[in-house]
Inverse folding.
């Protein structure tokens, strides 16, 4: 599950597609993202609002756990996601995108065993090319 924004959100969706995992999530009205309209190949539902925070909260609420991938400090929508996970009493792991953190992520997934995982983090405009790095990290984490 993800909100479809560029960056980590899309990396989560791309990883699900690549691995044959069911995907979904909520996105702003009009499939709004920083690069225009979120591609239709992502099976996302539109919120009534074009604002980002409502879809962020709905994705947290509709998931069992949230994985936040990041590289710098948590800020903006990424920090909001962490706060919403705490507010709604959802498991949340914030992990830096680094191969040495793969085992930590795998252990957390094995412990929490989420049926629905929300994947979130910075958009590409705030962390250039984070989508590619996050996708590679996720594919490595889910490799069997």
């Amino acid at each position: 599950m993800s909100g479809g924004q560029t960056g980590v959100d899309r990396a989560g969706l791309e990883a699900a597609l690549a691995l044959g995992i069911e995907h979904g999530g909520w996105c702003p009205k009009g499939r709004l993202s920083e690069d225009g309209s979120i591609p239709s190949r992502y099976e996302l539902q539109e919120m009534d609002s074009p604002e980002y925070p409502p879809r962020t909260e709905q994705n947290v609420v509709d998931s069992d756990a949230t994985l936040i991938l990041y590289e710098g400090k948590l800020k903006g929508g990424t920090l909001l996601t962490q706060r919403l996970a705490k507010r709604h009493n959802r498991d949340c792991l914030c992990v830096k995108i680094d191969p040495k953190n793969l085992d930590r992520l795998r252990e957390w997934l094995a412990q929490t065993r989420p049926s629905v995982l929300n994947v979130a983090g910075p958009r590409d405009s705030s962390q250039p090319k984070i989508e590619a790095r996050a996708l590679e990290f996720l594919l490595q984490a889910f490799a069997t």
Q: What stands out?
A: The beta strands are 26-27, 32-33, 36-37, 45-46, 65-70, 91-96, 117-120. Residues 41 and 121 are 20 Å apart (CA to CA). Residues 130-142 form the longest helix (13 residues).
